[in-house]
Design brief:
six-stranded parallel sheet, 428 residues, four-stranded mixed sheet, disordered N terminus
């Protein structure tokens, strides 16, 4: 809406989430690709990162009254939020019950590396109906390459045991898997390792990071590699796992192609409705923009509704669409991409504009590969066809399409490239 017509009110007019960092950037791991450890430089005088009871109570009270929906979502993030301890989350539940408005409910989501999730933790999370997102990078070798503890040891075994322990308590954690320059070389082994945990939901997160001098970090995945990675996983999923699990990107694409709107900020036309509260009460525009330039204010000195609906936050969200390059605006895949996350938009477009997504080439390759079969699945599911039947039809079609195709023949996808340079690795 026009800036001059916007007014703040005690309850925000649009849905939003304020993710909480109860221990700031503090963590018990030293993952080589972690983007959040640098946030510690914002608090040079802090010896201990810990959200005080005063800030916690202010946050919960204001968030409950400001959130416009019938359900208030609390996301506990990090750093590693379990470092706050169980008593912290017992206090969270007390305050949530204390300030819960009539007619509303609340839900808690814990994003964790799983290292501290012993029996007591898992019982608590299950008894209090916490959703859990857990970070694991697929196979042990891939995971342990980047996700190490402070002594330099890999953490896959501890993480895998935490997944099994959560499941034994009735919790099916969402699995969060980064895509790095290492894991991108092994898409199927990574995917199958995650699938074998049988939790029902996987989210792949591409690592795109730059050094202070503008070079890509060694862990960063290239656009081409990311496109190949997701295409390989899509190929496996759509032929074998439609009825077994969901992959976030595929689910979001399906949502859009069924006529809905994406539920994730990076795929939406605008963003700015998922903010961060740090342990000291500071509010920032986004988890990927916790820096001085994107500091919105502090919960102790300014009402939450004014910060969430402030002009600076509104412009942050609108810039996602406003600064979209012409190459994106005319792209066939705009509705399922919308330029992606602003943190990744630093490449130069074919028209010489800044703000193109670094992963653009790979994303376009993936969307092109996935569109036809995914839309077929949507149509067939709408018609009532069972997933097992759809998968069998797609496997038969794929075998027929590749019959007699050699490495140097034109790729059957219609790209005009030789098969060896296009979809050769995706053949049945």
């Amino acid at each position: 809406m026009p800036e001059e017509n916007r007014e703040t009110s005690p309850t925000s007019s649009e849905p939003f989430v304020v993710m909480a960092k109860p221990v700031g950037p503090a963590c018990n791991l030293e993952c080589s690709y972690c983007y959040y450890l640098d946030a510690a430089t914002l608090f040079p005088s802090r010896e201990r990162f810990r959200m005080s009871d005063e800030i916690l109570e202010n946050y919960i009270r204001q968030y409950m009254t400001t959130s416009p929906g019938p359900e208030v979502l609390f996301v506990w993030h990090g750093g590693e939020p379990t470092l706050a301890g169980l008593d912290f989350y017992r206090r969270v539940l007390e305050l949530q019950q204390k300030y819960l408005p009539d007619g509303k409910s609340f839900r808690n989501n814990l994003q964790t590396n799983g290292i501290l999730l012993n029996e007591e933790w898992c019982s608590f999370l299950a008894d209090n109906h916490f959703d859990v997102g857990l970070s694991i990078d697929g196979t042990q070798w891939v995971h342990d390459t980047c996700r190490k503890d402070r002594l330099g040891y890999g953490t896959w075994e501890l993480t895998a045991e935490s997944i099994r322990r959560l499941k034994s308590h009735g919790i099916q954690p969402d699995l969060l898997c980064t895509v790095t320059s290492v894991s991108a070389r092994e898409p199927l082994s990574v995917y199958r390792a995650l699938r074998d945990f049988d939790t029902g939901w996987i989210q792949f997160i591409p690592i795109v990071q730059r050094t202070p001098d503008g070079e890509m970090t060694p862990e960063s995945v290239s656009g081409e590699a990311y496109g190949r990675f997701m295409s390989n996983i899509f190929n496996e999923w759509i032929h074998h796992d439609l009825n077994r699990l969901n992959v976030q990107l595929f689910a979001e694409m399906s949502l859009v192609w069924m006529g809905g709107s994406p539920s994730v900020c990076w795929m939406s036309p605008t963003c700015g409705r998922v903010l961060i509260i740090e342990h000291d009460g500071g509010i920032y525009s986004c988890d990927h923009f916790v820096n001085k330039e994107h500091y919105v204010g502090n919960l102790i000195t300014s009402p939450l509704n004014e910060l969430v609906d402030s002009d600076v936050q509104y412009q942050f969200g609108e810039n996602k669409q406003k600064l979209l390059p012409q190459q994106c605006r005319s792209c066939s895949w705009l509705e399922v991409c919308n330029g992606g996350c602003p943190k990744d938009r630093f490449a130069i477009s074919e028209y010489g504009e800044t703000g193109l997504n670094y992963l653009c080439d790979g994303l376009r390759r993936f969307y092109s590969y996935a569109e036809k079969p995914l839309k077929y699945v949507i149509r067939q599911r709408k018609a009532g066809k069972r997933p097992e039947v759809i998968m069998a039809e797609l496997r038969d079609e794929s075998r027929e399409k590749w019959k007699g195709i050699g490495r140097n023949d034109p790729c059957p996808c219609g790209s005009g490239l030789k098969a060896k340079n296009c979809c050769w690795d995706l053949r049945p």
